[in-house]
Amino acid sequence: MSRNKIVLLTAAALISLASPVSGQGLSALDEVAGALDADGGAYRIAKPANWNGVLILDLDFAARPDSPLYKRMHELGYAGAGSTRGDAGNRGTAVDNPARIKRQLEVLRLFEQRFGKPKRVISFGHSGAGGLALALVEAAPEHIDGGVAACIITGSVGWFNAKLDSAFVAKTLIAPGSDLRLQDMPRDLTPVSQAWTQMLEKAQATPEGRARIALAVTIGQLPSWSRTDTLEPAAGDLPKIQQAMYETLVSQFGATIGGHVRVRRDFEESAGGTLSWNTDIDYRKILEENADPAQRDAVRQLYQIAGLDLDADLQMLRRAPRETANPAAVIKADSLMGVTAKPRNPVMLLHTSGDSLAPAATLEAYIRRAPATLVRTAIVQAAGHCTFSIAESMAAIETVDRRIATNLWPATSSVEMNARARAADVSPARFMDFHLNRFARAFYTGDAPPAQ
Q1: Is 444 helix (H, G, I), strand (E, B) or coil?
Q2: What φ, ψ does residue 81 adopt, rounded to 5°?
Q3: Residues 239 and 297: beta-carbon distance below 8 Å
Q4: Residue 358's CB: how many other CB atoms inside 10 A?
Q5: CA quadruple 318, 324, 330, 333: dihedral positive or negative?
Q6: pLDDT at position 450
Q7: Residues 227, 247: contact at Cβ < 8 Å?
Q8: Maximum pairwise Cα distance, the chain
Q9: In angstroms, what CA-CA distances link 140 with 81, 100, 101, 301?
Q10: For the residues of 128-152, what is the DSSP string, one character each?
């Protein structure tokens, strides 16, 4: 007997059919939930009565049955399916996308078994689920017609290296000789988080510290503004811009799931060693060639106010002892992510401008390597990680759906994306024009790991 334990939620599962302005009518949702044969992991599939033939395959679909986004998606005629992130062998925030791909394809098979083959299958997801959505487009083009990868890191190794850069600059210039950890994280992250937070709080109280905090954020290509409970500083408002930079840098060292040190620890444990290096990195070059121009200008102004010599600090960074990585762990971490920047079907990268956990800067490396005809990017003017409205997520889904159906991308300017969002839902439409500077730390499958 199959271990696929099935729960039918057919006629009783009713959802409200709503236009962007008001609810109109009801539609039955044919829903099946159960456990996968392979490892007993949960899955869920759901098809609305007004199914348009398109399936959205999302890793988070089983874990969030009451998601307002999924409800709106069904109202607009899209079916949904997916398993969960809690797969066997998963270590906290670390991922095993090759294993998750197999599980998602098993869920797709179960959907087809019950409801028939969809006209189009779109992989979709936020954060880790978005990374999987991208990996699925690359790995299974015969099953996945396109994808929307939202608030993702497009490569784990490059992302960790950029995070190292910020921390290295801060430690070297503000707390040289201290025992602040840059990598090789312990199981208990509380002391690490407290030490970094206390150091940055003390530095923020001085003009010299404020200037060096801004430099650390800028070289790591982090966004200046990232807190959802604050307004974006106006251009030219240097005190508020620097305060936002400080808040962004402090957020990197939280011991919870939102802090990069937590993600680093989990990946180090899964990959079996340290993942980041800066032995060959010229931080002056990053500041001059990769940094956001507005951030670079802010750094120069803050250094002038503090009476510091920026050139002297860059020389100090050049002379400082560097960090090394375990080459085998680097290769393992890259394989666990499973992203190659070689999609064979269309994908949209959806991101917020103020995501400090997964900075938008990393997208540039993927765009640079991937076929230009297959990739589009949409940036939402918002702080925080995955803080999209329903309208914005639906606009991205509908954009990719049109590209698959017609073999031509519809217009993806901020004006067009906002119009598409407003047609999909009453929630905010905040797409913006956004320039991505060249990401300094690109690393994908096939790149040479660091020499020890």
Answers
A1: coil
A2: -160, 155
A3: no
A4: 24
A5: negative
A6: 78
A7: yes
A8: 75
A9: 16, 12, 8, 49
A10: HHHHHHHHHHHH-TTT--EEEEES-
Inter-CA distances, 425 with 71, 228, 420, Å: 12, 22, 9
Which DSSP symbol is given to 290? I
CB 409 within 8 A of CB 376: yes
Give the CA angle between residues 361, 412, 363 to the nearest 5°: 15
Q: What are 270's two structure tokens? A: 């899964």
Q: Per the structure block, which two tokens stand in for 287? A: 């500041």
The neighbour count for residue 179, using CB atoms within 10 Å, is 7
Looking at this protein, which amino acid is placed at residue 21?
Answer: V
- Kindly write down the DSSP assignment for every residue of 315-338, as one continuous string: HHHHHS------HHHHHHHHHHHT
At residue 181, does pLDDT exceed 70?
A: yes
Helix (H, G, I), strand (E, B) or coil at 115: helix
What is the pLDDT averaged over residues 64-92?
A: 84
Q: What is the pLDDT of residues 335-350, one digit of tens each?
A: 999 899 999 999 999 9
Residue spans of the domains in the chain: they are 7-154+339-432, 157-333
Return the beta strands (E) in 283-410 as ranges.
347-354, 375-383
**b (16+ CB within 10 A) / e for 19-43:** eeeeeeeebbbbbbbbbbeeeebbb
Looking at 3.40.190.10, 2.60.120.430, 3.40.50.1820, 3.50.50.60, the CATH number of the domain 7-154+339-432 comes to: 3.40.50.1820
Tokens (6 digits) for 209: 């510290």
Please state whether the predicted TM-score (pTM) of the whole model is above 0.85: yes
According to DSSP, the residues that pair with 23 across neighbouring strands are 18
Give the rounded distance of the alpha carbon of 79 from its chain centre.
24
Amino acid found at 281: I
The 3-state DSSP class for residue 366 equals helix
CA distance 130 to 124: 6
Helix, strand, coil % over all residues of the chain, rounded to 5 = 45, 15, 40
Q: For residue 426, which of 26, 15, 22, 16 has the smallest C-alpha distance?
A: 22
